[in-house]
Amino acid sequence: MNSTAVLPRKRGRPAKDEGDYRATREALLNAGVAVLTEKGFSATGIDEILKSVGVPKGSFYHFFASKEAFGAALIARYDEYFVRKLDRFFLDEARSPLDRIDAFFADAERGMKRFGFRRGCLVGNLGQEMGTLPEAFRAQLTDVLLGWQRRTATVLEQAQRDGEIDRSTDCTEWAAFLWTGWEGAVLRAKLERKAAPLQMFARIFRQSIGA
Predict the structure, then answer these.
(1) Parent domain of 161
(2) How confident is the model at residue 131 (pLDDT cuts 50, 70, 90)?
């Protein structure tokens, strides 16, 4: 008989390879973002996400403390993805500043078309159901939008220096207007399953802000 004492198993996340843990957590985040751009947070069951990546139901809390913690992580992940997208267009010096914004609009339209207009903006989706979400999400979502606005204001300031828009234009206000209007256009495009609302907003924005 083996005389080595058998230690009781500790509660919590079972021992496993750190790389495997991270890969599974990443898969859950990616699946969650995909689902939440199509459905609301309240309507999304954890089971649906777990099944999509082959993770047992009982394992969810090894990766996230709660559904609220998962939601906060999803907002952060979507913001990271979206900021990379914005920077790809807004920092493209091969285009004029306003053309960079046009290129972003066109890319977003192609993205919605690719998914049959079923997916929208995760931040916009969550903002619409804020009344039923954890209050902590409000500040997080607001900070995300403000970050996007700051990047947009920087591009508009460059457009001012280049003479594309009038020197008297309030770039911070116009950046806020862009995201307020664009989120509404995305919502309507998702509702109507067509690109016309996106195209209308992009066209009127460019016509209105041009010098």
Answers:
(1) 74-209
(2) confident
